[in-house]
Amino acid sequence: MIAPVASTLTVSRGVRLGYGVGSFCTATVNAVPGLLLLYYMTNFLAVPAWLAGIVVTAPKVWDLVVNPLVGRWSDRTVSRWGPRRPWLLAGACTLPIAFFLVFAGPPLTGVPAAAYVAVCFLATATAYALFEVPYKAMPGEMTHDYHERTSLLQWRMVFIAAATAVSGVLAPAIATSEGEDGTLGSYRLMAATIAVIMLAAMLGSFFGTARAPMTGAPEADHGGWREQFAAIKGNPAFLWLTVLSCTQMLAVSMMLAAAPYFATYTIGSPQATQTLFAALVGPMLLTMPLWVRLSRRFGKRGAMITGTLLFAGGTTAAMATPLFGALWAHVTIALVGVGYAGLQLLQFSMLADVIAADAARTGKRRAGVLTGLWTAIESGVSSFGALIFGVILTIGGFIESQPSKPVQQPESAVTAVLIGQTTVPALIIFASVLMVLKYRLTPPVVPAPDASA
Questions:
Q1: What residue intervals traverse the membrane (predicted)?
Q2: Contact 203/92 with Cβ under 8 angstroms?
Q3: Could you count the other beta carbons within 10 Å of the beta carbon of residue 78?
Q4: Can you tell me whether residue 241 is helix, strand or coil?
Q5: Which pTM value belongs to this model?
Q6: Helix, strand or coil for residue 365?
């Protein structure tokens, strides 16, 4: 039986804000490379599209090793700051530097440039794990209340939306501030700006969660890897959520990688990347309270189905952009934004449910291991979005280039861009609707630990 550290059900507003601000890091470090890195390599460093896709994907395989390790270490950490917060500080001290180096390399092109970016991106993935895994484990340990977790994570999603605006509007604006497509110097300036923002957010989260309640299991799981993996393998709720998240985020990552190409070759304006992201972010900021109410009214499964269908519907409608033009593209992406807001909120709320249910069932603290595995697998699978899109471009005959030597893309490449942005992600996201029906964790099934035990 479990003796909880606290029986607090409600998390204070200060802690919610302190926790939520950390999402400026977790959102930007995924969105900016997902949006700009492939385009940066193919159009500025003359890296072939297939190789650029591998560079974006390969470092993520390292997540399968480092994320569970960091989670395991944080589960077993004993400090006056608690088990998670020391790792938040470690990430804050390393991630901004590594992120800047990804876009600030020496003047290389082709394979040497790809090798440099791959090394820096690997360092970024490692530093990111130090912050991300403990950070995402915290909500499942802050409260026992099923619906309070969704309410707590609403604040996180507001900051994710703001960070998405920074990633999708500010970052491309700085990157293209010198000429229509930008320069290597403008990309360096963008990386430095984003790195400073991430540092401020990470430190804000470290200090802002100083008073966060700890209601999770007080005893860390000291079992070996074999025992822990065996226990996780027997956790169907965790396995289901991991498959669902991987499927949905694979579609999202494809759309992120395709967005600059979609703006340039389908809409006809590289600057449209910024307005497309504004159309995506606006609904995320405005509809978050709605998703919390829908979750309470129809349950997390019902709300997730609604969000998935909205996302898929908007993506499908975007296929008609060549017929209806830029305004149509922005309207459909706004619809995607409404659905994406629900997907993001409910994925993390469901993860917190899985963590709380596991602690209540076993009496062991292994939120870090669960979160580490979940983020590693999700990140690894979703990173294939850029690789798949790179392969689609290659099949379509896309020609890599440098700003000083622009090229005219063949019609087949333009068609490949549209397929990679709309058709393939739509098929993937529609498939996830069937997976949502497997969700079974409801309030009676997610018990609060027995304080009298």
A1: 17-41, 47-66, 87-105, 111-131, 152-175, 187-207, 238-263, 275-292, 304-321, 327-346, 367-393, 413-437
A2: yes
A3: 9
A4: helix
A5: 0.70
A6: strand
Tokens matching residue 133 = 């895994």
Class of domain 13-213: mainly alpha
Every domain range in the chain assigned CATH 1.20.1250.20: 13-213, 224-443
Of the candidates 315, 347, 30, which has an alpha carbon nearest to the alpha carbon of residue 167? 30
For the chain, 453 residues long, give each residue's pLDDT as a single digit of tens. 333 333 445 677 778 888 888 888 877 887 788 778 888 888 888 888 889 888 887 777 788 788 888 888 888 888 888 888 899 999 999 999 999 999 987 788 888 989 999 999 999 989 999 998 888 888 767 766 666 667 677 777 778 777 877 777 788 888 877 766 678 888 899 999 999 999 999 999 999 888 876 665 555 555 566 666 666 777 788 888 888 888 998 998 888 888 888 988 899 887 787 788 778 777 877 888 888 888 888 888 889 999 999 999 999 999 999 999 999 999 999 999 999 888 888 888 888 888 877 777 777 777 777 888 887 787 777 778 878 888 899 899 888 766 667 678 889 988 999 999 999 999 999 988 888 877 666 655 444 444 333
**Single-letter amino acid code for the residue at 135:** Y
How far is Cα 276 from Cα 93, in angstroms, rounded to an integer? 32
CATH of domain 224-443: 1.20.1250.20
List residues bridging with 402 in a β-sheet: 405
Residue 27, token pair as written in the block? 């959102």
Assign 447 to helix, strand or coil: coil
CB within 8 Å of 408: residues ≥ 6 apart: none
